[in-house]
Sequence to fold (154 residues):
Amino acid sequence: MHTHKVKGFTLIELLVVIAIIGILSSVVLASLNTARAKGADAAIKSNLANVRAQAEIIYDTNGNYGTDSADCVTAGSLFTDTNVSAAVTQSSTIAGFPAVCFADDATLGAGTAASSWSISVPLKTNAATSWCVDSSGASASGTAVLVGNVAFCQ
Fold:
């Protein structure tokens, strides 16, 4: 009498393999989300570094940073320059929060040529933390502020 064994996997073996694959894929997806957020933070920092470089070009050309501004859209301010505006808009879009922008002069009144500026945008990994750049060369975690008609990162 010949017994013929059928080759194959049992239902339990298949379910165990599917469960293992599910666990591994959830670990990978969690890591990808963290990597995406860190990538978004890097893009925000890069955009703000580009703003600093463009602002210095504007200063070298005009001798100032445009007119005083208490926001990111004041006509004639540094922040309405095409390149600066694009970088600010993109950073805000990536972060999902608006940027904070200031440009002002320590010695002159409102509506005059700005000699300092600062801008900050919340980071994607932690919206409570913002990245800030300013006319003094600061590029660090902080918030853009305007104190005594001088804009800087704090």
Notes: The chain has a mean pLDDT of 89. The two ends are 88 Å apart (CA to CA). Residues 11-153 form one domain. The helical segments are 11-62, 82-95.
